[in-house]
Amino acid sequence: MATEIEAQITGSVWKVLVAPGDEVEEEATLIIFESMKMEIPLEAESAGKVLEVRVQEGQSVTEGDVVLVLEP
């Protein structure tokens, strides 16, 4: 069962570090957000495979937006 990963903050997507098909380890950084001139990493809560990346670099996000789908 796939897990939808949500933005934890309102801000913009600074860097997307993964692509669909990538295998990631627990605590791997997936996306880096920028908010109020600070960089905030989004880390994987568990190991898995990236199914979808729903954001692009430079895109604005709101807290709770689904930004990535991960399959365990």
How is the topology of this model organized?
Layout: E1 3-6, E2 11-16, E3 23-24, E4 29-35, E5 38-43, E6 48-53, E7 60-61, E8 66-71
Write a structural description:
Helix content is 0%, strand content 54%. With 72 residues, it is an all-beta fold. The model has no long low-confidence stretch (mean pLDDT 97). The termini are close together. It has a 4-stranded antiparallel beta sheet, with no helix packed on it. It has one domain: RNA polymerase II/Efflux pump adaptor protein, barrel-sandwich hybrid domain (OB fold (Dihydrolipoamide Acetyltransferase, E2P)).
Q: Would you kindly provide a brief summary of this structure?
A:
The chain has strands spanning 3-6, 11-16, 23-24, 29-35, 38-43, 48-53, 60-61, 66-71.
* CATH domain fold name: OB fold (Dihydrolipoamide Acetyltransferase, E2P)
Give the overall average pLDDT: 97
- In whole angstroms, the N-to-C terminal distance is 7 Å
Biggest beta sheet summary: 4 strands, antiparallel
> How many strands appear in the DSSP assignment?
8
List key phrases describing it:
72 residues, OB fold (Dihydrolipoamide Acetyltransferase, E2P), 8 strands
